């Protein structure tokens, strides 16, 4: 390798290093479901025996969420990027190794439950649908199922109180939405817009087919 090429290689490697996932090697680690199950007992104290969360959304549902998203979330809590100290302590995440997070994410995403979560009392699913289609669908999927390509979570099957709390955190920048510190997705919505969105999301079927990456698919507006 010539000096110039070495220099170029270093130059190219540096910015890439900054964006490297916390554990590039981890992507190749095999999950140990049994170990994940054992560790999950700590999580069940708050999230419920089956990771179903609790009505009212203080503890979100985590069962059946996609592995990529669970892994990102666990990394964010462990690093403090998402703050909820009680969970990090009781869930023993502070001392968790990358392998532990992989085991947990695999075990939790395998839990198969169906949740029919109630929407807010106020809120029009019909106008929520309009906003959802123009502002959320590209990333969260037509059926609210989440998209691995965007590393976005499913929104269907989640308590609206929890989702609304996250939106408030996004607005106050205590949590970063869509991986973009400048994100302004929610700034122009008033409370009614958010309730409408929640009503629409609650109307989506928790068991709708998973990921459907076809953005161009025709939507029917007849329902
Ligand atoms: C002391 C109670 C508590 C314990 C124990 C706990 N959690 Fe949590 N967890 C919460 C709360 C409350 C939230 C929501 C925090 C917020 O609003 O940001 C949360 C959020 C989460 C989320 C984010 C969900 C989403 O949709 O982004 C994941 C994933 C999660 N917990 C996984 C776990 C795992 C795995 C464990 C066990 C290692 C665990 N939790 C243990 C209380 C707990
Ligand atoms: C550019 C892509 C993008 C768009 C558009 C987008 N989101 Fe997101 N959203 C994401 C990503 C990525 C995350 C996960 C953030 C993380 O990893 O912490 C997320 C997370 C969320 C969460 C937190 C869910 C949880 O389980 O904690 C909520 C709520 C949410 N989005 C609602 C919406 C709504 C409502 C809209 C439309 C008004 C929308 N998003 C538009 C990419 C997007």
UniProtKB/TrEMBL annotation:
Residue ranges, compositional bias (Acidic residues): 206-223
Q: Which Gene3D superfamilies does the UniProt record give?
A: Cytochrome c-like domain
One MF term in the entry's GO annotations = electron transfer activity
User: Where on the tree of life does the source sit, at the highest rank?
Assistant: Bacteria
Answer yes or no on keyword Transport.
Answer: yes
Pfam family for this entry, one = Cytochrom_C
Going by the UniProt record, its keywords in alphabetical order are: Electron transport, Heme, Iron, Metal-binding, Signal, Transport
The record, for InterPro entries, names:
Cyt_c-like_dom, Cyt_c-like_dom_sf, Cytochrome_c_Oxidase_Subunit
> Is Signal one of the keywords?
yes
Signal peptide stretch: 1-20
Q: Where is this region: Disordered?
A: 201-223
- Report the residue ranges that make up the Cytochrome c domain in this protein: 31-112, 123-205
Q: Could you identify this protein by its name?
A: C-type cytochrome
Please tell me the species this chain comes from. Thiohalocapsa marina
């Amino acid at each position: 390798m010539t000096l110039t090429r070495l220099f170029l290689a270093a130059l190219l490697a540096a910015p890439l290093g900054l964006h490297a996932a916390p554990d590039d090697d981890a992507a190749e680690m095999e999950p140990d479901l049994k170990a994940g199950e054992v560790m999950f007992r700590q999580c069940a104290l708050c999230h419920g025996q089956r990771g179903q969360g609790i009505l009212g959304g203080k503890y979100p549902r985590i069962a059946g969420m996609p592995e990529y998203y669970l892994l990102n979330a666990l990394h964010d809590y462990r690093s403090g990027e998402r703050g909820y100290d009680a969970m990090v302590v009781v869930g023993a995440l502070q001392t968790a190794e990358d392998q532990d997070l992989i085991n947990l994410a695999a075990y939790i995403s395998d839990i198969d439950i169906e949740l029919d979560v109630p929407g807010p009392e106020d809120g029009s699913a019909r106008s929520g649908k309009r906003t959802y289609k123009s502002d959320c669908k590209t990333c969260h999927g037509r059926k609210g199922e989440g998209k691995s390509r965007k590393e976005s979570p499913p929104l269907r099957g989640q308590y609206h109180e929890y989702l609304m709390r996250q939106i408030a955190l996004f607005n106050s920048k205590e949590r970063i939405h869509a991986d973009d510190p400048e994100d302004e997705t929610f700034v122009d919505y008033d409370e009614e817009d958010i309730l409408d969105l929640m009503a629409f999301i609650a109307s989506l079927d928790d068991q709708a087919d998973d990921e459907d990456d076809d953005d161009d698919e025709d939507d029917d507006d007849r329902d």
